[in-house]
Here is the input.
Amino acid sequence: MDGAGQTSLCIAEALKLSILYYHDDMDAKLLELLVCPVTKGFLDWDKERQELRSRSAKLAYPVRNGIPVLLENEARVLTDEELETISARTPLV
Here is the structure.
């Protein structure tokens, strides 16, 4: 495995460990690093549904066994009511 592959594996394992450790409360620093794969916008943690929600893409990505599944085809579409519960944020420039 090349250096890039090893780095990706290490990052994936770190993310998994972080999410498993914070299974109830998603780590704020981890949330700062993760972005929506569709829009590159912020993700918000929905503790109750175990999902990472993207207001900009109107999608909710599942977290399965402590691992975020950030694939568009695995996400569900957020309802208008759910979108209203996500606070708007200004992206960092």
